[in-house]
Write a structure and sequence with these properties.
Elements lengths: L1 E2 L12 H7 L5 H12 L8 E6 L3 E6 L2 E6 L1 H7 L1
Length: about 80
Amino acid sequence: MADATRAGTDPSKAGSVPAAAEHPSEHPLARAIFDAARERALPLTAAQNFTSTPGRGVTVTLDGHTVRRPGAIEAAYRK
């Protein structure tokens, strides 16, 4: 499983994975991430198997890889 914040090394595409992972979400910050990526014309992969747990983040399949983006609660415990 890949962490969306660590995916890829090309800075010009760094927002692609988080934006694609957040696309199905209704959260306002998720929408902002997706909209910013779209404005930058970043390539976005269609998300599959999207699941969201409030405060815990999202898990999604992109190009056959499971990608997880932690939420605020989980990120607070990582520190």
